[in-house]
Amino acid sequence: MKAIQHLRTINHHKWLVMKECFQVGLYKQGLLHDLSKYSPSEFLVGCRYYQGNRSPNNAEREATGYSKAWLHHKGRNKHHYEYWIDYSANPEEGIVGQKMPVKYVVEMFMDRVAASKTYKGAAYTDRDPLVYYEQGAAKLGKMIHPDTAALLHGLLRMLAEKGEKETFRYIRQNILKKR
Ligand SMILES: [Zn+2]
Predict the structure, then answer these.
(1) How far apart are the CA of 111 and the centre of ligand 1, in A?
(2) pLDDT (tens digit per residue) in 108-141
(3) Which of 51, 73, 107, 118 has the most CB atoms around its CB within 10 Å?
(4) pTM value?
């Protein structure tokens, strides 16, 4: 059991996301981000499969075929596009990603920025979250709503080109303001 290391990883991630969310005025989401990681269903699995350099969910998948911790997590955290996967109102479409409320798209963006910072460490640049997204985007298919994907991708591109300060200001003033 790597309880201390796992706890430290969660706390560090939450701290980064909180700082980012506060900068754009998402105070409640900044405080509550990923809170279910402290629940036994997620925390104990995280301790058991702690890796240090990648998600314990991947190790759980390799061991048992699927990750119970992830299924618990994505069912409770609205900043994951996977939370929003549901049957389409149009029966011909089958299961699709529903359009996410903008405030959760912003939290998803912050989550990815924080994860890239942790993963890359001192080598992190503002381009890393975009590169990571584009590597996996083609596989998402209908699992993410096109409007949600376009907003996320646009913010990641802006971050890569204009940096954090300007992108966060844009989010504050243009994306979140009209709510
Ligand atoms: Zn999460």
Answers:
(1) 7
(2) 999 999 999 998 999 999 999 999 999 999 899 9
(3) 107
(4) 0.95
